[in-house]
UniProtKB/TrEMBL annotation:
Signal peptide: none annotated. This is Quinol monooxygenase YgiN. Residues 222-231 have a biased composition (Polar residues). InterPro entries: Dimeric_a/b-barrel (IPR011008), NIPSNAP (IPR012577). Coiled coil: none annotated. GO terms for molecular function: monooxygenase activity. Residues 212-231 are annotated as: Disordered.
Length: 231
């Protein structure tokens, strides 16, 4: 089980996303898993054609340091880094997170039917995380589940020293994130429709949620690649 997660959003040169995905899925999945840097999901951002998003997990921060040193100092990355880096404009938009709820992907296999994955990021003022998570669990999550979107995972910012500074992480972020899975765009649209008809949501929960945020939430709409565990 991964207790340390990276949500990595890469901005790529125009037209280069499929090049990176082909290389990534062929060469950079099992080779990271083998050293303890577990590739949990890799995605096309449906709202930005030159954005690649992926999620990587580690058992703890010590394992993260060792795994990243082994991979980025090893022969696989040396063989493929130039081709990978050639596709990228920016790879530093990285959130370091930890699970609030169990996020167990054991037993899943790579591949299968393509679905739609959403990641909703709630940006919070400093010190507001615990109260927000209590509110989310009691008021938001039941409504999400009732309208067809039970969270696959709930995550929060992990505030620790970056023990592998060669890979920056965002120090400015303070977020709670929920990861959702849908059969496709129609299922997401139906969830939004049902949620919008819930008076508990429109009259009470949404205003209360908004009041707790430091800025409007972000939602990523993601299409898993053929070898993503999260689907």
């Amino acid at each position: 089980m991964a207790d340390v997660l990276e949500l990595r959003q890469y901005t790529l040169h125009p037209g280069r996303r499929e090049d990176l995905i082909e290389l990534f899925d062929r060469e950079l999945v099992e080779t990271q898993d083998a050293v303890g840097a577990h590739v949990l999901g890799q995605f096309r951002d449906l709202d930005a054609e030159d954005r690649f998003v992926w999620l990587r997990g580690f058992t703890d921060m010590a394992a993260r340091r060792e795994a990243l040193a082994a991979f980025y100092g090893g022969p696989v990355w040396a063989a493929h880094r130039d081709k990978a880096n050639d596709t990228m404009i920016d790879s530093d938009d990285v959130l370091l997170l930890r699970p609030v709820t169990d996020f167990d992907l054991s037993g899943r296999t790579r591949g299968g039917d393509t679905t739609l994955v959403t990641v909703t990021l709630y940006h919070l003022p400093a010190g507001g995380e615990d109260a927000f998570l209590s509110f989310f669990a009691s008021s938001v999550q039941p409504l999400l589940s009732d309208t067809g979107a039970p969270p696959l995972a709930v995550l929060r910012t992990l505030r620790v020293e970056n023990t592998f500074p060669a890979l920056p992480i965002r120090e400015d972020a303070n977020v709670v994130a929920w990861v959702g899975g849908f059969a496709g765009p129609d299922a997401l649209a139906e969830h939004v429709r049902l949620l919008g008809r819930e008076t508990r949501w429109t009259h009470d929960t949404l205003p209360a949620l908004t009041s707790r945020l430091s800025r409007p939430p972000e939602q990523l709409h993601l299409s898993p690649t053929s070898r993503s565990l999260i689907r």
